[in-house]
Hints:
Elements: E1 2-6, H1 12-21, E2 27-31, H2 43-59, E3 64-67, H3 70-75, H4 77-83, E4 88-90, H5 92-102, E5 107-112, H6 114-119, H7 121-129, E6 134-139, H8 143-148, H9 155-169, E7 175-179, H10 187-194, E8 199-202, H11 203-217, H12 219-224, E9 233-236, H13 241-251, E10 257-259
Parallel strand pairs: 1-2, 1-3, 2-9, 3-4, 5-6, 5-7, 7-8, 9-10
Helix pairs in contact: 1-11, 2-4, 5-7, 5-11, 9-10
Active site: 69 (proton donor/acceptor), 180 (proton donor/acceptor)
Keywords: Cell shape, Cell wall biogenesis/degradation, Isomerase, Peptidoglycan synthesis
Enzyme class: isomerase
Amino acid sequence: MIGIFDSxxxxxxxxxxxxxxxxxxxxxxxxxxxxxxYGSKSRETVVRYSLENTRFLIEMGAEMIVVxxxxxxxxxxxxxxxxYDVPVFEVVTPAVEQALAASKKGQIGVIGxxxxxxxxxxxxxxxxxxxxxxxxxxxxxxxxPLVEEGWFDRPETRRIVKSYIHPLxxxxxxxxxxxxxxxxxxxxxxxxxxxxxxxxxxxxxxVARQVKAFxxxxxxxxxKGGSRRGCDRFYVSxxxxxxxxxxxxxxxxxxxxxxxxx
Length: 262
C-alpha cells in the first residue's frame, strides 16, 4: 500500500498521478487540513508534522511513503528515512531532473510556498546537477489558500498569478517548476501567464513517474500491484464540505473522507 501525505488538498494531484500509473496498488492519503499551510511554519514544525503524518500512514498499513508536499519534501525526508524503514519518495528531486531535461537555456523558474523557496532546496539541487543553470525563484503564499477555497478561475486568482509569474517571465525562463502540489489546479492560468514557450513541470506527476520506475524495478513491489484488496482511503485532520468537493473534482470519483486527530 502506498501512503501519501500533504498539508492539505494539493497532494491529491500526486495521488491522481500515482493512480493513473499504478492502478493496481492501494493508496492511502492523509491531508493535514487542520494545520495547513505548512509553508509558513518553521523547519522544526514541518519535520515534526511530517513524522507524525508518516507514523499515522504506516500504522494504517502503508509500506511506502510519498511526501506529496514540497515544503515537507524540502526539509523532512532525511528525518523520515531515519525514523522509518520504508521506501520514501519526495517531490523535489524528480521535478528537478525533469526540469533539467526539458530546459534548453538553463533558465529555470521555481514557484512555491515561502517555506520551500526560503529553503533554497530547488536552487541547490539544480546547481548540483547543472552548475551553469540560472534559477529564478518566487514565493507565492496566496496560491495555496486560493486552491483550498476552490478559486480556480476567479479574476482575482488570475491577477494574483500574473503578479507572481511576471518577475520570472521578465527573466526569460524557459522552464517553470510548480514547487507545490496545489499548483497544478491552477496550471492553465499559470501556463497562460508564463507564456507558450515555457515548459511547466508538475512536481507531483514527476514523483509519480519515479515511484512507477521503482515499482517496475522491484519484483516484490510489482507483484503487489496485482493483489489489490480494498478501496483507496482518504483521511483528513479537519473536515470541510469544500475539501470533499475539490477532492472529488481532482480525482474524478466519489471520495469518502475520514476524520482523524493528529
